[in-house]
Amino acid sequence: MLHTTAVGKALVAFADDDERKQLVEELELEPLTEFSITDRDAFRLEIEKVRRQGYAIMDEENEVGMRAVAVPVLNSQGVAFASLATAVPVFRMSVEQLVAVVPLLKSAASELADRLPQR
After folding, report:
1. Domains: count for the chain
2. Fewest Cβ atoms nearer than 10 Å: which of 61, 74, 105, 119?
C-alpha cells in the first residue's frame, strides 16, 4: 500500500512528475488502520509535504503500534528508484526521535544511489 507506508509515500513523492500526479489522483486509498489517509486532498497534501521535507513518516497508518521514516534513493534526474527506511514500535521512539535519523538515512541513500544500478 503506497499511501500507508513511509516507503510508499517516499516513492510516490519522488516519482517522475507524470507518474506522481497519476498516483496521487488514482491510487486507491483503502484504510488499513484508523490512522490511514483515505482522503484524496489529505493524501495530496501529504505527498507535497514529503517532497518539501525530503522524507516520509508513517505513524500507525499501516500497522497500529508501528511508525517508520523513509527517504528516497534518487537517480541523477532526482527521481526515486528505491527507498530506504527504518521502522520501530511506537513505544521505542517518538516521531521526533525517528526524524533525528533522517540525516543518516539520507547519507546511506546517497551512497546506495551511487552504487546501485539505476533504471
Report:
1. 1
2. 119
